[in-house]
Amino acid sequence: MQIRNAQYLSGCTSVDKCPAPILPEYAFIGRSNVGKSSLINMITGYKKLAKISSTPGKTRIINHFLIDESWYLVDLPGYGFARISKKDRLAWEGMINEYLLKRLNLLCVFLLVDARIKPQASDIRMMDWLAAANKPFVILFTKTDKLSRNELGIKMQEYQKHLLDEWELPPQSIITSATTNLGKAEILEFIGEQNAKYSPGS
Ligand SMILES: Nc1nc2c(ncn2[C@@H]2O[C@H](COP(=O)(O)OP(=O)(O)O)[C@@H](O)[C@H]2O)c(=O)[nH]1
Ligand SMILES: [Mg+2]
Q1: Average pLDDT over residues 37-51
Q2: Fewer CB within 10 A of the terminal residue: the chain, N end or C end?
Q3: Please, are residues 9 and 57 in contact by the beta-carbon 8 Å criterion?
Q4: Is the pTM of this model over 0.90?
Q5: pLDDT exceeds 80 at position 57
Q6: How deeply is 182 buried, as exposed, middle or buried, from its count of CB atoms within 10 A (0-12, 13-18, 19+)?
Q7: Structural domain includes residue 186
Q8: Predicted pLDDT of residue 19
Q9: Is the pLDDT of residue 77 over 70?
Q10: Ligand 1 centre and the CA of 112: distance in Å?
Q11: What is the whole-number distance in angstroms between the Cα of residue 79 and the centre of ligand 2?
C-alpha cells in the first residue's frame, strides 16, 4: 500500500470529542521522544505532518490524521516522563485508557520502543495493559539507524528474550528508522491488510 494523501484532522482532549468512529484507526503510542511524530511523517511521506520536537511537551491531545480519506492515524501523547507529577500521570492514564477502551474503530496500536535501550517498565506495563484489554498491538522498534547491524542484532535478541519470559508467543514487531525509511513498507502492508478486513460495526 502507498499513501497518496495525508492531512491533519483534529486534536481532541477526550475520546468523546474524537472524529466519528467510522473509519479504521491506528494509534501510535510510546514514551516521549521515542519517535512517534517522526515515524508518522516517515510512513506518510509528509515531512511536517506531525510536529516533531526534540523537547518533550506535556500536551495531552489525541491528534487525528486522515489518510487517503479512508483511515485514521493517531498520534497519542507520550508517557514516561521522569519528572511528571502523579496528578499529571493519572490524568494521562485516564485519558489514554479511556481512548483505548472506548475507541471501537481502533484496529491496532503501534507501540513504539527505542531499539537502543533495555526494556523499560513503562513499555512493558503498556503491553500488559493492552494484552489484558484484548487490544491488538505491534511493537515498532525505533531509531535503529543509530545502531550498527551487529548491535541491532544483539539488542533485538535481548528484547525478544525479555518478552519470552512473559509471553509464550511474543508480540509481533517491526524494525524501523525514520531516517532511512526502514520498516515503512512493512507497516503500510500491515495497515493495508487490516483495512481490507475492516467492516464497520464488526
Ligand atoms: N536518528 C534518528 N532519530 C530519530 C528517529 N526518530 C526520531 N528521531 C529523533 O528523536 C527525537 C524525538 O522524535 P519525535 O518524533 O519528536 O518523538 P515523539 O516525542 O515520540 O513524537 C527527534 O529529535 C527526532 O529527530 C530515527 O528513526 N532516527
Ligand atoms: Mg511527538
Answers
A1: 92
A2: C
A3: no
A4: yes
A5: no
A6: middle
A7: yes
A8: 97
A9: yes
A10: 11
A11: 11
Q: Is residue 1 a part of any domain in this protein?
A: no
Decide if 127 contacts 112 (C-beta within 8 A).
no
Is 202 among the domain residues? no
Burial per residue of 83-94, b for 16 or more beta-carbon CB atoms within 10 angstroms, e otherwise: ebeeeeeeebee
For ligand 1, atom 7, the nearest C-alpha belongs to: 35
Tell me which residue has its CA closest to atom 6 in ligand 1: 35
66 forms beta bridges with 7, 72
Question: Domain residues for 144?
Answer: 6-197
Task: Identify residues whose C-beta is under 5 A from ligand 2, the ion.
Answer: 36-37
Spell out a b/e string for 27-38, using b for 16 or more CB atoms within 10 Å of the CB, else e.
Answer: bbbbbbbbbbbb
Q: What is the CATH number of the domain that holds 107?
A: 3.40.50.300
Q: Which residues line ligand 1 (CB under 6 A)?
A: 30, 32-38, 52-54, 56, 78, 142-143, 145-146, 177-179
Residue nearest to atom 4 of ligand 1 (CA): 143
Q: Which ligand is nearest to the CA of 54?
A: 1
Which atom belonging to ligand 1 lies closest to the Cα atom of 112?
A: 20
Question: How far is ligand 2, taken at its centre, from the CA of residue 75, in Å?
Answer: 7
Number of structural domains in the chain: 1
Q: Is 30 domain-assigned? A: yes
